[in-house]
Specification:
By secondary structure, the protein is α/β, with parallel strands linked by helices. Helix content is 56%, strand content 8%. The protein folds into 2 domains: 2-101, no CATH class; 121-340 and 371-482, Rossmann fold (3-Layer(aba) Sandwich). The strands form 2 sheets. It has a 5-stranded parallel β-sheet, with helices on both faces. Strand 2 and strand 3 (182-185) form a beta hairpin. The longest helix has 38 residues, at 2-39.
């Protein structure tokens, strides 16, 4: 009997010691680390909820040390440990199901007959340098993501500005979406325009704004929307920049609206509803973009600082390709990973991140705590403010150009009109009295699948941009001839 009591006491002592170690690790290591990950995830939604949950998780650990009764301590330890393990196992199960049931993009395209170039971006850039005999070949920049992430506050590159474009007069490698690495040449300010972008006084002049669909991602040189509009007899200044919503477009227009003494008749903003609401929401409260929003006279004078912009990106790309630097700043991995890592490794690393960050469960919890409809309503309101600000920015251009917003759908949105946020965006544009062209029905009137490589989702191909350019050209011709504006579905 005494031996049993001694054994039980020893077991309890060991359990209490294990519990102390467990709760100390959770309170001061695991939960603070997870809280950091949650807070610095890309979405800015539900920050108060995230804070409350993080504090609650830490308090559940601290509470253990206020329990006096050893039996209750041991029971609390078992319950707490079981709950935490169950949460991670549930998230792991969801991730395993996702991996097993999801084909990779490479597998999907290869099943359609695509031949996939498996080289990493870095390998392709090195090969392209050797092929063309030039060193000025770089990956594309992501200024919008860099600014929103606030990374530049942590690393010092000797800069006191925030670049908005690519490296100038260079070959920019940007995309391998359907098996082929694509690239374009940049002009004197890092945009996808001819070096000698000559204007013809007898043609209408367009400034283009927008994200990757505007900049020319994932199509061969000359097949982007800028060049397709030039083929429609327009003078075109393409100021598109990938990875940004409305506010980077506004900032770019502020900085480069008088680039190369270009005089626009129209400013065409291509709005990709699939991600521009999300991007604009993340950008809205950023202090850099708020300067452009709150002060009509704020400017970084970027048009006269291209040498600094080029130097910044060259140093940044060099750093984010260095493993030692990425260990010091792991949040920069997303900027360097696609440069160095094979596709399979990137997918594996993404799965590990989803498991560690509880990404799958957080997605479900977010939907329960704040329904999707409420999130969309908040994002639409921010989009409305941002588009109103962009319209005001356009009106400040000396030539008094007209703003036209072109709504670009995904393949899924064309197939199913219940998907996406098209109707909400149209309501905003009508309320703001901004002219727009909705491409959803126009694509549906065509054999639209041929506008996508291998008839799969992604950026539009050459045929898609050719059709898009024709629609824009016809719209501008109509309102120019009639002298009246109109809105078209």
């Amino acid at each position: 009997m005494r031996n049993n009591l001694t054994h039980n006491n020893r077991t309890k002592t060991i359990l209490v010691l294990c519990a102390k170690i467990y709760f100390l690790l959770c309170a001061f290591v695991l939960f603070p680390l997870l809280s950091y990950v949650v807070f610095f995830a890309r979405s800015n939604d539900l920050l108060i909820t995230k804070l409350a949950l993080s504090i609650l998780a830490i308090l559940t650990c601290i509470y253990y040390f206020f329990i006096k009764n050893i039996e209750r301590r041991v029971n609390y330890f078992f319950v707490h440990f079981s709950v935490i393990v169950s949460i991670f196992l549930l998230n792991l199960s969801v991730e395993i199901i996702r991996i097993v049931s999801t084909e990779t993009r490479v597998e999907i395209f290869q099943s359609k007959g695509a031949s996939w170039d498996g080289r990493t971006r870095t390998q392709f850039i090195l090969d392209l340098k050797n092929e063309i005999g030039a060193d000025n070949v770089f990956r594309h920049s992501n200024p919008g993501g860099l600014i929103v992430s606030n990374i530049l506050k942590k690393i010092k590159l000797g800069n006191e500005f925030y670049p908005l474009t690519n490296i100038s007069k260079s070959t920019i490698v940007h995309c391998n979406e359907s098996g082929i690495w694509r690239y374009f040449e940049t002009d004197n300010h890092g945009f996808n325009n001819p070096i000698l972008n000559v204007s013809d006084g007898g043609k209408k002049s367009l400034i283009l704004l927008g994200d990757s669909f505007t900049e020319g991602f994932c199509v061969d040189v000359g097949n982007d929307i800028g060049n397709k509009l030039r083929e429609q007899s327009f003078n075109v200044m393409n100021l598109g920049k990938a990875s940004g919503g409305v506010l980077p477009a506004k900032a770019i227009l502020r900085e480069y609206r008088y680039k190369d003494d270009f005089h626009p008749d129209f400013i065409v903003y291509f709005l990709y509803t699939a991600n521009d609401l999300y991007d604009t929401n993340n950008e809205y409260n950023n202090e850099v973009f708020q300067r452009y929003l709150s002060n009509d006279h704020f400017s970084q004078n970027l048009i006269n600082r291209q040498d600094e912009v080029d130097k910044f990106w060259k140093e940044f790309f060099s750093l984010t390709s260095t493993k030692k630097f990425l260990r010091q700043y792991p949040e920069l991995t997303k900027f360097g990973r696609s440069t160095n890592d094979p596709i399979k490794f990137s997918n594996f690393q993404k799965s590990l991140e989803n498991i560690a960050n509880l990404s799958n469960l957080r997605r479900y919890v977010r939907a329960l705590v704040k329904p999707e409809s409420e999130i969309v309503t908040a994002r639409v309101e921010i989009l409305k403010r941002s588009l109103k600000s962009l319209d005001s920015e356009v009106k400040m251009v000396h030539d008094k150009p007209k703003l036209i917003v072109v709504l670009l759908p995904t393949l899924a949105e064309i197939v199913d009109d219940k998907l996406g946020y098209h109707d909400e965006v149209v309501d905003v544009l009508n309320e703001l009295d901004i002219d727009y062209i909705s491409m959803v029905e126009k694509f549906r009137s065509q054999d639209f699948k041929i506008f996508f490589d291998y008839e799969l989702s992604g950026h539009y191909n050459s045929d898609g941009y050719h059709y898009l350019a024709g629609v824009v050209a016809k719209y501008i011709e109509t309102i120019s001839f009639s002298g009246q504006t109109k809105k078209t579905e």
